[in-house]
Amino acid sequence: MQQNAAETGSTEDDGARLTPLAYNARLDGLRCIAVIWVVLHNMGNRVLDESNAVFIRLLDVALGTGWMGVQLFFVLSGYLITRILLASRGTEGALRIFFLRRVLRIFPVYFLLLALMIFVVPLSGIMPPGWAELAARQQTYLWTYTINWVMPFFDENCLPHLWSLGVEEQFYLFWPLLVLFLPITMLPRLFVALIVIATVVRSALFLGGDTWMMDAGYYWTITRIDALAAGGLLAWFTTPGRNGIPWAWLAGMTVSAAVAMLAIIGITHEFASSKAGISLLNQTIAGLLFFGVIGLVTMPGPANRVSSLLASRPMASIGRISYGIYLFHLPVIQAWTNLNPLPMDQSGNIARFAAILVNLGAVTVISVVIAAISWTLFERPILSLKRFLRYARQASGPS
Predict the structure, then answer these.
(1) What is the DSSP letter of 273?
(2) How much is the pTM?
């Protein structure tokens, strides 16, 4: 889920020298929004229920859209990874360097989480009853990043949020082969084809109606590749040497997608992640929304209030550790709700609303603190090894 913008680079089609793309703190600001959105969504699923209070119902609708945080992560990953790969076309050892850098970023803290959750944390007794047994049964799929393919067939999942890491890891395996070795003029057509294929397959599964098919439409890599491909398409359009995408076009797409989203919420009172009917294209709408948003955020130009806020130190700092926040937040939620230190059974809507907000805030803060510790003591020292894995400068000649 995490890609440091400082890694990215860009190159023109005519074989121009590799020019690093400067770190863009605004992208870390978007990561901050994405990960906090996801945390609040997953905690909201546990503390919100039917209520006649308008403010609780509005909060339920708002947090119910939190699955879109993962969609934002996917479009961001597709964009940044494709920028890196486009920049390294024609350089010596590009594929090897890409894989090794991905291993350093993704594997260590992911496998640390699994080791802690499967072998250590169950001994503490803080997890829900039966959690350890469930983790033991499902650990093969977790260690191999394949949990997203089998989740539709399980009634329960011990670490269900890791499905998205499965999608990302599988994306990392085949995407560089496409971007590095296919003719560069073929790439935009391929990206569009993947967007169409994913939308069709996902829609067919949603329309199937069975529970496992609805889940498959959400978790399987083939049904989520459209968001990653949308990011790749944005990267292709915005590499130096091309005309890019007009500001008005990006703004129009963003506004249109936002209006469509609000219209669906107005009609259905939700913006569900996997549902047939009028909500059939919710994921597609979310992908188009973030295509436009990322395009606008990365567009050169003077800073404005939005870009300054995204690049602010608090948002950029949280965005920088968003991978750890995402990994640790669900175990925190599971332990928190099992221990139930702040009961939700308050009398009166005001007291209940206050309890909801306190619970949401508590798990968010705890997740951020754990991720910050992980980043400082574990992840950052390992990432310092990337200095030995730099992409070669591009030789002259067509890419």
Answers:
(1) S
(2) 0.91
